[in-house]
Amino acid sequence: MSSPQAMIFDMDGTLFQTETLLIPAYHRVFDRLREEGLYEGPTPPEERILSSLGMLLEDIWNRVMPDASLEAKKRADVLLLEEELSGLLQGDSKLYPEVANTLQQLHAQGIKLFVASNGLERYVQGVADAHGITPWFDGLYSAGGYQTETKVDLVRILMKEHQLEHAWMIGDRSSDVEAGKKNGLTVVGCMYAGFGDNQELDGADHFINHFADLFVLAASHSAGK
Q1: What is the pLDDT of residue 1?
Q2: Minimal CA–CA distance to 11: which of 75, 103, 80?
Q3: InterPro entries recorded for this chain (predicted)?
Q4: Signed CA dihedral, 91, 94, 100, 106: sign only
Q5: Sign of CA dihedral 65, 67, 73, 75
């Protein structure tokens, strides 16, 4: 594994402690859906949406509330973004420990940094802006912004637009492993989020238990190239 020209990060479960923003927003969404007559019954278990992180929104709602109407699912898209953007303004959400410092160090080393997320464009941008990490990135790519059906396609677009020849894909879900492998990238699996099962990161080239381990990993391969 050679020193990377660039690093491409998933957002949820990799940079961002999603549950700190998502869980309060999730409950407010279902409160509003019930108020609007689009959903009946109790809010589905939190585990359903947490285990769906990394999926496209359409797939998330099909998993969270499979029997709900299409109207309810589309409305949930709108409401979740509203509630999450509102939550970001309140300042209660968190990055994982050492994310900001590590990104700053990697950027200072001349490594190009990107985000590739299956989330909506305003959400991805909003998280980065709210936590002050936007200046260290060369690009924030989202499925919502590029209308891609898979993260494989999103990363392919990113690589082409920035003429990248070798990069690391860093994430916590099987979609990150797939996106990296199908684009010929080295994959670093993040073990600290705990949203997926034990098989999520099968096929990753390396694993980290803390985000700061990434800087050590990059430095060791830079020294060994």
Answers
A1: 52
A2: 103
A3: HAD-like_hydrolase_sf, HAD-like_sf, HAD_sf, PGP-like_dom2
A4: negative
A5: negative
Closest CA to 113 of 129, 94, 96, 134: 134
Residues 179 and 154: beta-carbon distance below 8 Å: yes
- Which DSSP helix (H) or strand (E) runs through 151? helix 151-161
Distance CA 21, CA 84 (A): 6
In the predicted structure, residue 51 carries a pLDDT above the cut 60? yes
- CA nearest to 219, candidates 111, 79, 131, 124: 111
Which class would CATH give 6-17+95-224? alpha beta
In this predicted model, what pLDDT tens digit does every residue of 53-69 receive, in sequence order?
878 888 999 999 999 99
Q: Where are the alpha helices (DSSP H) in the chain?
A: 19-35, 46-50, 57-64, 70-90, 99-108, 121-130, 143-146, 151-161, 174-182, 213-224
Q: State pLDDT tens for residues 103-146.
A: 999 999 999 999 999 999 999 999 999 999 999 999 999 998 99
Cα gap 83→120, rounded to integer Å = 13
25-53 average pLDDT score = 95
pLDDT in tens, 156-169: 999 999 999 889 99
Reduced to 3 states (helix: H, G, I; strand: E, B; else coil), residue 177 is helix
| Pairing verdict, β 16-17 and 94-95 | antiparallel
Please report where in the chains the tokens 């990394």 appear, as a residue: 54
* pTM score of the predicted model: 0.91
